[in-house]
Specification:
Blueprint (H helix, E strand, L loop, with lengths): L3 H14 L1 H4 L8 H6 L4 E7 L9 E6 L2 H12 L3 E6 L17 E12 L5 E17 L5 E8 L5 H21 L18
Parallel strand pairs: 1-3
Antiparallel strand pairs: 1-6, 2-5, 3-4, 4-5, 5-6
């Protein structure tokens, strides 16, 4: 059995599922409306290896007391939390306010469950990119003054993305075994042989 074909097919499915590529033909959200939802001050949830992207949902498990308070406050307000990456070397000041990258993504809590011990499971859906322009020290968790960085693709950017999506769709259909259906409705072009 040729292992490269299934691996290639899986890679193509992953690429086709990327918001920027899939969105080139069917934008999943209104980026301007999402950007308009963002207040000028938002709570920050800095993590070392997890990011959020506009239009993408990310499940999170919230267990630290300061972030439990952050989620509780967000749920009684606009439900918005900003995610940013911690800079390398964060470990020495993790309990405080370690350095972060200034670009992040704000998300809205779509689903949540508060567990009996006060921890939360949440699903955060990315809204828009932002830049941290300052921090507010009023809470035990981090609050940041932010400016919106909406990503609204131009027609010049959409055309090559649509062409790339079409090419990837054709390649995927060429490597799928005849008895396997395409992985989603977004893969509707090409002729199966």
């Amino acid at each position: 059995m040729n292992v490269r074909k299934p691996a290639c097919a899986l890679a193509l499915v992953a690429l086709l599922g990327l918001p920027a590529v899939a969105g080139a033909q069917n934008p999943p959200r209104d980026a301007a409306a999402d950007a308009a939802k963002l207040p000028s001050v938002i709570p920050l949830f800095p993590l070392p290896e997890a990011v959020l992207f506009p239009g993408v949902a990310r499940p999170l498990f919230i267990f630290e007391p300061r972030y439990r308070e952050m989620v509780a406050d967000a749920l009684t307000g606009d439900r918005i939390i900003g995610m940013v990456l911690l800079r390398p070397g964060f470990e020495k000041d993790y309990e405080g306010r370690p350095p972060i990258y200034e670009i992040g993504c704000a998300g809205e809590i779509e689903e949540y469950e508060q567990l009996p011990d006060g921890r939360y499971t949440i699903v955060l859906r990315g809204l828009t990119k932002f830049r941290v322009v300052g921090e507010d020290q009023r809470r035990v968790y981090r609050l940041a003054r932010v400016e919106v960085m909406p990503e609204v693709p131009t027609e010049e950017e959409l055309a090559p993305l649509s062409a790339l999506r079409q090419r990837l769709s054709d390649l995927l259909l060429a490597v799928l075994p005849p008895n396997i259906d395409p992985p989603g409705p977004w893969l509707t072009t090409g002729v199966r042989s």
